[in-house]
Amino acid sequence: MKIFDAQKIRSDFPLLSQKVRGQNLIYLDSAATTLKPWPVIEKLSHFYSYQTANVHRGAHYLSDQATAEYEGSRDKIQKFLKAAFREEIIFTKGTTESLNLVASSFGDYLIKEGDLILLTEMEHHSNIVPWQLLAERKKAKLEVIPVNSSGQLDRESLNRWLTQKPKILAMTHCSNVLGTINPVKEFADQIHSVGGYIVVDGAQMVLSHAVDVQNLNCDFYAFSGHKLFGPYGVGVLFGKKEILAKMPPYQGGGSMIETVSFEKTTFQDPPYRFEAGTPAIPEAIALGHAIDYLQSYSFLEIQTHLKALVTLATAGLTEIPGIQFYGPKENQSAILSFSIGKIHGSDIAQILDQNNVAVRAGHLCAQPLMRKLGVSHFLRASFSIYNNSNDVEKLVQNVKLAQEMLK
Question: Can you say whether the dihedral through the CA atoms of 44, 47, 49, 55 is positive or negative?
Fold first, then answer.
């Protein structure tokens, strides 16, 4: 395992070496997408230059080589999530497609008219809309576990809904707005106690915390490659083997079939049943390299580094009149969301951008949560391993500047 050296890590990300308007870029939008390290970039380039071939269906060296690396990436992800079986790892386009797959395939298989589906008030739109569509198709009920004033889920509300024996609980492991890290294992045990299933959006969790899907006892777990130093267009869905075996295909096409005739088609076992067509081959392979890169460092050291940055940023921004932070004070990830009085977040973000500080502004794909909190816009600074104290100082300095200009 490598020694955690923040300055050395920065040199692994070529984007940080370029100048924007003649100055260094301060990138604080990793919750939206992470920058890419050299091992990922080089693997993509190498595949397209020297390895281009389809997987599973070729009868030549290049295809055999591509298949071995593609399936090797599946093995890496199995170990990364500590899944019991490699067959529990499905490649998708990202978290959004993973959640849609579960809602469409498992949801259609499981949900009947009048059944209850539970969501939480802090979900990303990608873990709301698929369940709404399912509820409409099946005439099912959809209810929501609220967020309390401390930025945590209301557990008493969950207990009340459990009396109605919900069939599915879909929840985020870590809020992309509040940074709240939710007690997934506790919620999984509770939903299982009434015969239900739990679907977890892990997109914001896997970058900085070790995830053990067996320990969490979740039925499904999803994440995206591009939020994990990996490429765009590839993601992962973990599903328990015995559940995947019951699920109908999500899409039809090549690779997911055993036999096809005009009278009847039979399908492959999972995971291939859910991987129709030509997959994102180099992206899936490069995702394995992104995981190798991340796991070359200690998660404990990563968390210590990120916590120090959030603490430093909070202390500096607290000096600004009218600032309000959103999210828990404890058990928070490297996400810092805030607003400043009635100043629109986009106006502040524009001034920050003019000074090469990249943050996120707006509703953060979480409009129901925004309405609950009584705000229409946020600013969000999100940190990763390539950020340092200088980035934090530039953030604080430029938010103060923007507040003075716009007050």
Answer: negative
